[in-house]
Specification:
This protein is an alpha/beta fold. It has a domain of 237 residues: Rossmann fold. It is built from 13 helices and 15 strands. The strands form five sheets. The chain has a seven-stranded mixed sheet with strand order 11-2-1-12-13-15-14. Strands 3-4 form a two-stranded antiparallel sheet. A hairpin with a 2-residue loop joins strand 7 and strand 8. The longest helix is centred in the C-terminal third of the chain and has 20 residues. The protein is globular, with a radius of gyration of 22 Å. The protein starts with 33 loop residues before the first strand and ends with a strand.
């Protein structure tokens, strides 16, 4: 066995981002008034969408356009947005937060959570397949995807409802064991260090994440996630059902033939705590005692996600389609989660989320509709190579370009991390975006302005 594959830790699919949630409209010099169009490329999860919605002011409306690298990532974005929009009458805010985080960051889930996932998948199938021109929900708009991409989404959602085996060839064998899939990745990554994995986990936490300011991530929780893929255990329960939303296919060469294997191919090093669990506006959650944080990244994630859900319902929520249809009728019992349909989800005033085809980025400049259209453009670290000069044609005057840096990609050393930031600056400059220095620049995102 080798000493391990360094590049394997981050995985080949982005289930969560390598940076905390940001209100993207607050990252430039001036907030745009009126309708704001934001383009997200490869963000991997809806953290920025939820945080940006929470920061919206009364006179602002928001349209987020999303491009991902795979339909599995689109499917998960749709799932997480669906959960965020669940009405409080059918799922209380505490439980909704727990289920959201469980599906977001756990390799294995509880049976109750699986029921919620399956019902959501069945509703998303209807949303994707039965709407050709008009979206069933403005925040789950897939009408601009290609027919084959919608077919792929339907296939993925059906897999969540009825799991299949690990290879495309063995349809009759047992469903994938997530615990085995996770352990396979850990073994591949660590190689000969596998037998001393506890020490490897501790090193990555204390010498890397903690030194990068992630002191809220506790040793016990991080070690459990590294070993089993369980990041969030907020309730007493049995977490042993595979979370199918974290499975995807990866093509390998086998004796000259290409074979697709379903398994866990995401991050196994940096952790899902980065998205919601390492920062908080509530300073009371950041208190320390004897040099140790009292709260953990799990606690912070829960508080942050719950606050985002609170802002969704209080500041932007409005009656659902079902509620409007039955307004004049006799009061009816509130729906439980198993009877919730797309029409029962919260409707957010002035907010839309539209998913674009995977290959659409370089086609947008060819369409008049998107000419000088986007006020904010966001690139994840894994998609920086797609940033080119054509971005100028779709960027509005005074547009803000935000690029995720490599700070939390743990397998890069300090020199590589700095080299990545310089490369980003160079690519942005070639595309005629200049750095914006506001005195508050961080090493998590680079911010640029259109020249």
């Amino acid at each position: 066995m080798s000493a391990g594959r360094v590049s394997e830790g981050a995985g080949c699919i982005t289930w969560w981002g390598f940076s905390p949630a940001r209100d993207l409209l607050s990252m430039g010099p001036v907030r745009v008034k009126g309708e704001v169009n934001v383009l997200l490329i490869g963000s991997g999860d809806p953290r920025h969408i939820l945080k940006t919605i929470a920061g919206l002011q009364d006179e602002e409306s928001l349209h987020v356009w999303v491009i991902e690298n795979s339909m599995e990532e689109v499917a998960r974005q749709l799932l997480l947005l669906y959960l965020a929009l669940m009405p409080q009458e059918s799922m209380g805010r505490n439980e909704k937060t727990e289920v959201f985080l469980e599906l977001f960051g756990n390799s294995e889930i509880r049976s109750q959570t699986e029921e919620t996932l399956r019902h959501a998948a069945s509703q998303l199938i209807l949303s994707v397949t039965e709407t050709l021109e008009t979206a069933t929900h403005t925040c789950l708009n897939t009408t601009l995807l290609k027919f084959k991409e919608r077919d792929e989404l339907e296939r993925i959602f059906k897999l969540w409802i009825q799991p299949q085996s690990s290879t495309s060839l063995s349809k009759c064998s047992a469903p994938i064991s997530m615990s085995k899939a996770w352990d396979y990745r850990v073994r591949q990554h660590l190689g000969t260090r596998y037998n001393s994995k506890k020490g490897c986990f501790d090193w990555d936490l204390t010498m890397k994440l903690h030194k990068k300011g992630c002191g809220l991530i506790s040793q016990q929780q991080y070690a459990q996630w590294r070993e089993q893929g369980l990041a969030f255990e907020m309730r007493e329960g049995i977490y042993q059902i595979t979370n199918p939303s974290l499975l995807s296919s990866r093509v390998f060469n086998q004796k000259g033939n290409k074979v697709a294997f379903r398994g866990y191919w995401g991050d196994i090093v940096s952790s899902p705590y980065l998205s919601f669990g390492i920062e908080s506006d509530d300073k009371s959650l950041l208190k320390t005692q004897n040099g140790q944080h009292i709260k953990t990244a799990q606690d912070i994630s829960f508080a942050n996600v719950q606050a985002l859900f609170q802002s969704l319902s209080s500041s932007r929520g409005c009656p659902t389609t079902s509620q409007l249809d039955t307004e004049a009728e006799e009061p009816s019992p509130q729906p439980d989660r198993k009877s919730v349909t797309i029409n029962d989800l919260m409707r957010l005033n002035g907010i839309s989320v539209t998913f674009l085809s995977m290959d659409s980025l370089h086609k947008l400049p060819e369409k008049q509709k998107y000419s000088y259209f986007f006020n904010t453009i966001y690139f994840s670290a894994s998609c920086v190579h797609q940033l080119g000069s054509t971005m100028r044609q779709i960027a509005a005057p005074d547009a803000v370009l935000i690029v995720e840096l490599a700070k939390y990609i743990l397998e890069l050393n300090k020199e590589q991390e700095e080299g990545f930031a310089k490369k980003v600056a160079s690519i942005a400059l070639e595309a005629e975006f200049e750095p914006w220095h506001d005195g508050k620049s961080d090493d998590v995102h680079a911010v640029f302005m259109k020249k």
